Amino acid sequence: MSRRFEIFMHSFLISSKDRDEALKKATSLCSQERIDKIDVEFINFEKLVGIEDIRAVQKKIYLKPIKSDIKAIVLAAFNGMTVEAQNATLKILEEPPNNTIILLLVETDWQVLPTILSRCKIIKIDDKREKLGELEEDQIAEVLSSISTSGVGRRLRLAQDFGESREETIIWLEKMIIILRKNIIEEINKDMAFEQNKIKILQKMQDTYTIVKTTNINQRFALENLFLSI
Predict the structure, then answer these.
(1) Cα–Cα distances in Å, from 133 out to 87, 169, 187?
(2) Among residues 12, 112, 121, 184, which one has the fewest Cβ atoms lying within 10 Å of its Cβ?
(3) Over its length of 230 residues, how does the chain's per-residue pLDDT go in tens digits?
(4) Which of 3.40.50.300, 3.40.50.720, 3.40.50.10320, 1.10.10.10 would CATH assign to domain 3-124?
(5) Has this prediction a pTM greater than 0.85?
């Protein structure tokens, strides 16, 4: 199998805290495939990517390359994507044109739904997040499990405990998203059936994370709303 054929087996997801490095990697991949600059379109989303943004991309995705055999669409979504936008992106990744490669750029791969990750070749340029130890993973998994089985009072107390500050809320949400996403991906890779409810919970957590990080919402209120809905 040639390297040129191999690249067409995948869309790419490039994750990096350093946006310039992610863009450099995308440019390098296009250069390796001898795609002329005129056939590489960089779409830089300055804010949270919404469904209308992806619909605009869909209109461009089927245009033919001008000078090269193939073209590249680089989607820089460092500020995150709504669940609706991710689902629309998934449809593109499931049936991309034969003459197009798609490169999705994000800060961290856990911002993206596992269904998208399963359609992409993942390239991690860096990962500065603190690695979770086995004990911490178990503790977080236990919290995740207890949320869905606890009564209203327990859920509100958890929201109070995790929502003392915006920074702490963001950290806890990150950890819970990482662990839940890891669990789902493991089940997908093992061809195990998993509860669709897990995907819905992950989507709600990602939405809450984005809201807390990008708006002035009261973090405790956001957590209460999240925990009472799962």
Answers:
(1) 32, 19, 20
(2) 121
(3) 334 434 444 699 999 988 899 999 999 999 988 999 999 999 999 888 999 999 999 888 888 999 999 999 999 999 888 888 999 999 999 888 888 999 999 988 877 888 898 899 999 886 555 467 778 888 888 888 888 788 999 999 999 999 989 889 988 998 899 888 888 888 777 766 656 788 888 889 988 988 888 788 999 999 999 999 98
(4) 3.40.50.300
(5) no
